[in-house]
Write a structure and sequence with these properties.
- The chain is mostly helical.
- The protein has one domain.
- The protein has 4 helices and no strands.
- Helix 1 packs antiparallel against helix 4 and helix 2 packs across helix 3.
- The protein is rod-shaped and about 75 Å long.
Length: 84
């Protein structure tokens, strides 16, 4: 192969590497935001419950289902993140 072809292949490989890194960053940020939302929602639900709100009231205010509220109250927040 000529030097020009090798340089061209190297340039393409570098571009693909940069694009792959950027895609990984974008996906990582999205996953981090999603996990942050889960943590915030869990804290909100548990604090509302600690302040005397019923599961049904919490579901109504947060627009979660009763099952989702019950699940949030039953499991620690970090166990829920493993599934996310």
């Amino acid at each position: 192969m000529t030097k020009a072809i090798l340089d061209w292949e190297l340039a393409i490989a570098e571009r693909n590497k940069r694009e792959g890194r950027e895609q990984g960053r974008v996906e990582g940020r999205a996953e981090g935001r999603e996990q942050g939302e889960i943590i915030n929602q869990h804290h909100l639900v548990t604090n509302m419950h600690k302040n005397g709100m019923t599961v049904e009231q919490i579901a109504d205010v947060t627009e979660l289902t009763v099952k989702e509220v019950e699940a949030a109250l039953e499991e620690p927040v970090f166990e829920g993140l493993q599934e996310a």
